[in-house]
Amino acid sequence: MNHRKQGLALALCLAAASVAAAEVQVMVLGTYHFGNPGQDVVNTQVDDVLSPRRQAELQTLTRRLAVFKPDKVMVERRATPPDSPELPGYLDWRQGKHQTRRNEVEQIGFRLADARGHTAAYGIDADGMFPFQALQDYARQQGMEPKLQAMVALLQQRSKDFEARQPRQSIPELLATINSPEALLRDHQFYTEALHFGQGDKQPGAELLGQWYTRNARICARIVQLARPGDRIVVVYGSGHAYLLRQCVLEQPGWRLVEAVPYLLGDKTGEIKD
Distance between CA 28 and CA 24 in Å, rounded? Predict the structure, then answer.
């Protein structure tokens, strides 16, 4: 009987180890735009990430994220063609074939993939509609412009707060602030507040929110389809998307969401915090 119990215990341990080995772990790293393309509702002015100070901070950031030991790095870039997600630009960048650009795709995503010796980085961006003009038109027609202006003003204030923190905070610290679950929820609530705009069958706010969910579902579908059992994945994406991408990861059976903040601050590396 004892031998049977020991055998059963061993079998259970092996089964648990097998499940753990097959678990997909995903870190969603929300970022601000290092080279802002000016396509957001509110656009933030950022420091030059090619300056010596910021380059040193990015080296620290890469070293800390590498402790997670990702097998794949996925970034906010459209794959061309869409069914070939490995980015040719990564290999060009790795071989020094073009000048380094001021964007988080290269400065974080490509750096991290290179530090881990990856031969590929993956583009998972997806197109989507953002019918903000229809929301603005409805607000004007229904006398709700003050409500919409207040929502945008809150985003502008957060942008100003971020700009004010830049001189005294490192890139890892800035990213840690915007990647807290509370901050990600606040950013996402701009979209859910849009539900106030509409009545009856006319729902421009619901349409905007639905389109935003659709785009992020398309992005997360690419993550799901590229993942393999046991993968450790880092997703580098604009912070406005992070709430929904995290939610998508949490809803995948056998997947685990890994919080980025402890790695950003060095809690997982034994380094002294910035």
Answer: 13
Tell me phi and psi for residue 159, to 5 degrees.
-65, -45
164: in domain:
yes
Does 1 fall in a domain?
no
The pair of structure tokens assigned to 189 is: 């609530």
Task: Write the single-letter amino acid at 232.
Answer: R
| Matching residue, tokens 């989507």 | 128
Residues 6+ apart with CB under 8 A from 227: 24, 26, 72, 233, 255
Is residue 17 in some structural domain? no
Number of domains in the chain: 1
The answer to whether residue 252 is domain-embedded is yes
Q: What is the pLDDT of residues 116-148, one digit of tens each?
A: 999 999 999 999 999 999 999 999 999 999 999
Could you tell me the end-to-end alpha-carbon distance of the chain, in angstroms, rounded to an integer?
57
Q: Measured between alpha carbons, how far is 233 from 231 in angstroms, rounded to an integer?
A: 6
pTM over 0.85: yes
Residue 88, helix vs strand vs coil: helix
What would the two tokens of residue 219 be?
A: 């992005």
